[in-house]
Structure formats: C-alpha cells, structure tokens
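Methods, example record. To illustrate the input and output format used throughout this study, we show the complete record for Alkaline phosphatase PhoX. The sequence lines were provided to the predictor; the line carrying structure tokens was produced by it.
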Amino acid sequence: MDRRRFITNVVAGIAGPFAGVACAGARGGAEPVPAYGPLRPVRDLRDGKVRLHLPDGFKYRSFSAAGEKFSDGSTVPGRHDGMAAFSGPGGSAILIRNHEVTGPVGAFGDKARAYDPMAGGGTSTLRVTRYGEVLKSAPSLNGTLHNCSGGPMLWRAWVSCEETVNGPDVADDFSGGDNSKLTEKHGYLFEVPVHGTARARPIRSAGRFPHESAAFDPSTGALYLTEDNFAFPSGFYRYLPPKHPVQAGRLLDGGRLQMLAVKGAKRKDLSAGQPAGATYAAVWVDIDDPDPDFKGRPANDEAVQAVGKQGREAGAAIFSRLEGAVYHQGTVYFVSTQGGATAQGERPPSGFGKGRGQVWAYETWSERLKLVYESPRSSVLDLPDNVTVSRRGTLVLCEDGDGDNYLRGLTRAGEIFDFCRLEPIPGDEGAEFAGSTFGPGGHTLYVNVQAKQGRSIAIWGPWERGRF
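The corresponding predicted structure is encoded as:
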C-alpha cells in the first residue's frame, strides 16, 4: 500500500529518520521550507475555477461533488472526509470515502440497506483514473452517522469510524438534531469492502465513543484507534479482536478494548506542551464496558465521555483531539489536533487543548510513545487533522485551522513545508482539507475538500522535484 509508507524502518529504533523528526520540536521556530517553491492559483481542469494554490507544474481536477449523481442515479451526500485509495483495474484507483453527515436527516442511497434509515452519514466508493475522471461510483455504507475518518485494511477493506455517540438513548448534542428520531445506537466502527457494499454491522466491542481513525498492525492483528472528543479529554486506544483479521478475512466483533497509559504516571496529561523528543514507556488498561447502555437519556456531554472516563479512572493518558493515524512497520503515527503549548501572542483555539497541533509515534514492538513534532505557532502548522504519507516517507498533514488551510508536509528530517493552499470559499469559512491519500504508484494525491458543498480532488505533477 504505497500511500502508507512512512517515516522509519522499525529496526533502526530511535536512530535515523525517527530521531530526526523527533528533534523538530527543538527547531520549531523555523518557518516552512520551500520544498516545491511558491504557491500560485491554479485553475481546476474540470471547470476552470480556482480552488487550489499549488507549486509550478502541478495540475488538478475536482470530481464527485455534493449534490451530483452517483452512477446508480442516487445523490452524492456532502461533508466529504476520510478516504483511502486501493489499486483498481487498468491502473485506476478505487476510493472509499467517508461522509461526515450528522443528525436524523435520512439515509442516502438505498434505505433498505441502511444500518439506521434516519442517519445521513456513510461511505461512497468510486473508481477513478489517475487524472480524477470518474469511471464508476455508488454508495457503499449508509445509515451511519458522522463518519469522520478510519483506515485501510490489508484484506482490502476500509474501516469507517463514527465520531459520535448519538442515538435514541442519548440527549441531543450541539448539532441540534433530534436524537429520538434515530432508530439505532451510534458511535461504532463499520467495515466496508473494496468491492460491493458493507454489511452495516457495527463492531461494538471496539467501543462506543467519538472515533476518528483506525490503524492496523499486521504483526499482532491489533487495531489502533484515535478519539476526537472536541470539548473533553481524548484517548488513544487499541482493539484486540478475537481472531487475527487477516486470517479471519474481516474484523470480528467480540474482542477487547484497551486505552494507553504512561507507565508510572497515572492520567498523564500529554495534551499540554512537551519537551522536544519527549518519550514515555506505555502500558495498556482494559475498558470493562466498551459499549455502555445508557438509561434515562443522559446528557450528550456525559455519554460522550462514558468510555474514556473508564480508561482515565484506570490511569490512561490524556490527549487533545486525536485525529489522523497511520501505521508503518511497527509504528503508529497519530495527530493531536489541538495538542501543545499556546504560542506567545496567539489566542488558543476553542475546545479541549490549547496548542496548534502535535504528531506522536507509538512503537508497537517496544511499547514506547514519542513526540514527533509540536507546532510552535499557527503560521507553521495550524490544527492538523487527517494524515497520509508519500513514497519518500514524508508525512502529509491536512489542516483544519482558523484561517487559510494548507496541505503541509513533514519530512523525515523534521522540516515543515507548504504544498497546497485552499482557495477561500465565500460564505463557507469552515471549509477544510480531509482524506488525503496517494493512489497506486504514487502518481496522484487524492484529497477531499470538506465544505457545505464538498468535493474530491486529484492532484498530480512533478513530485520528484521536491520532498514528496
């Protein structure tokens, strides 16, 4: 899976690229390096509109925007989010893409196949050329809710994550939707095969909490999970299924959920600013009730913390808004969107966590957690979200910041650079990048623009000229 190659060869331990990136915090005051040169407005080959600012030589085409039609005639939903690319026939890419639609707005696609016919989120699957031309598209999971990110699996599947605990048994949340109209509990993982549609069966033992991303460790069969709890502490989890998923051919329910803790330091607060290269020995605590049944429709703020509180009471570490995650050769790299110290002269973001972002690395073989990068201020890196990697091992970070949003690269030497800037969308100041993923062979970077009218984009050009 070329898009998932990353920072280090695990046998190198703390030497080489791993150590180089971890030193970035000490040099964090430096401005982004000019890896590909200045960014300029570039017109979309689809319709001539300027949507991205890119270096010279790069081109792009947008496709499958919200409100358009799938190949089966149904309507493409909005809120494009996490995504993965798999190899398809004839050099094409098969994209599985989340739609982070929340509230009881009704399922898109065939409601008879929906997990919850009232829920508007899910995934779509598209076969596209490396130039962003759609060959086929269709819904592949519907009736789920707030599908944020997830992760690609070695058995050619995508695990989609619900970033919510809404359901008929929970009081309404900030979105203003009426949870009593929902017919099923939400807050779970769902597996989507590369070909065909999902069975829409939740993996309940993997927890009911605001899931964000999933990263699979083939050596042990463990699935590492991030939690994006906007207003409250978040945790880093692992799900141990009852049978190795590669042997089973799918992710089975009925396993054990655990949460990471720092050895010798109960409830260690890792959301705050850290020294450069901070390293911690990790242990894991069990979650006794990963799928709680709520009685009396508790407040959403209570329900959304129910699983995480179990872990923290057992000593689990505290993070701020854990979002993107990726596995490579024994190491899981994951992003804390609002982790770190507040930069001097800057206003901290709202929600839990007062920094502009951290990148962490967990070595599964040594059970060691290490800080890879901490943003010194918003002009360098502003609230990183989804994450992928290039064939050269450079991390690609999607921003969800307060101002202009970028695709930024973090090299193995710990250098940040700007690659792409999103053209502001009038009337949609909340538009952001999401779901970046390299297609087969690394020719194309596919990425989503999450906006009121979301869309997907294919970017290609002289990657060899710079750091991707």
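Annotations derived from this record:
The two ends are 16 Å apart (CA to CA).
The longest strand covers residues 134-144.
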